[in-house]
Amino acid sequence: MSALDLLLMGSIFPGHTSGFSVRVMPEPRLLYVLRHRPGPAIAAGESVFDHPGIADHLEFLGRRATDGSLIAAGPLEEGSGEGMTVIAAASLAEAERLATTDDQSVVAGVLAVEVRAWQVVMDPGLVTIRSAPEPD
Length: 136
Fold this sequence. Notes:
Layout: H1 3-9, E1 23-38, H2 54-67, E2 70-75, E3 83-87, H3 92-102, H4 104-107, E4 111-123
Protein name: YCII-related domain-containing protein
């Protein structure tokens, strides 16, 4: 029996299943995680959030929200200047293209980004996962 089976039966966290439901996805879904950190344009001791170029990142997020590819985004540990964005895209190459060429804060060096594929196999229903938009 797999760990997932045990989790769904309540055997891993007995007595803590009330209100907890998980939808096991029939097919794993690939989403893409964009891990951002301050880029080379940010001087030591400067907050990325105080740099005027961060507005370009917010515009990038707005475009992703408008085209329906934005799943979630936000800063990580307070004060680190790091953040994470989760997007739907047609492929890893498309996610990398969006992250490195469409986000002008990355192009300008305000942010650096690492793009990783994330295989989603369980969805608690807290986030609606939409289909990836068609590439431009």
